[in-house]
Specification:
Elements (H helix, E strand, L loop, with lengths): L1 H19 L4 E19 L7 E17 L2 E11 L8 E4 L2 E4 L4 E17 L4 E19 L2 E21 L5 E16 L7 H6 L5 H10 L2 E3 L4 E13 L4 E14 L5 E15 L1
Antiparallel strand pairs: 1-2, 1-13, 2-3, 3-6, 4-5, 6-7, 7-8, 8-9, 9-10, 9-11, 11-12, 12-13
Length: about 280
Amino acid sequence: MKTKKFILLLTFIFTGTLLFAVKPEKVRSLSLGLGLGQNSRQDLIFSPFVHHEFSLLNGTINYSIHGRFFQQVKIGIATFDPMLKEPYNYSEDGEVKTAAPHYLLYLDLDYLLGKKIKKTGKTDLTVGGMLGTNTQSLNYVYGRIGYFGYFSAINLGMFGQFGIPTQNGNGVFFKLQLPFVSWLARSPYLVNDDEFIENISSHSGIKTFFAFLKDGKPATWNTVQQVDAEVKYLFSLTSKWGMGISGAYEFTRASQPRLLNSHRTSVNVSATLKF
């Protein structure tokens, strides 16, 4: 019941702000970004070690509306397969096999709604609210034994964007997102406890995900800290097409049920269509 109430509250806030923001707009843009990522993660639920990995699979999709209000929907995805040492062989039922690396999947979905509060001849400042999800699917593999885990946070907070614009929405932009309140669901300390086994008994990916989410609890900054920062340079190729280069940093720290520290950086090149 508490899960439904919390999600309904976030949905109500999201829907209300979205309806409030429906006004005649000026410029819309859709961009696709691809690039490189680097991850450093320590999750004491699964391992005391810090896992580092470099990845070529890092992408984003952005849909933005610039007008009386600034709106943006952003989807981000990244995968990593860290391993503490080179692949090693092990024996299982008399057969020699090679150990596989861990597999970490990061999926972010954010909605931003803001308004310019300051605009000078060369700079502008946009602030507003954000509603987003930070979902991580985790597979830790130790030879013939492996553990599935998860981290999911539905976040409500604020964002700020400082811009040094030129013409047609081009320029340099610095953005910071700070979630303040979250609905946080993490793997249990015992990894595969009775509740975990009950949650996966449906053998349905969607039902299992919402079962995990239902086990979450409201969390504030004393339990989970999250920061997203991005710097982006945009420039036009034609009146409709443009390109961009961006660098992003995502920090996640959670203290319950065991400590998690995650640092993720990325560099992307994007193509943008304006309409």
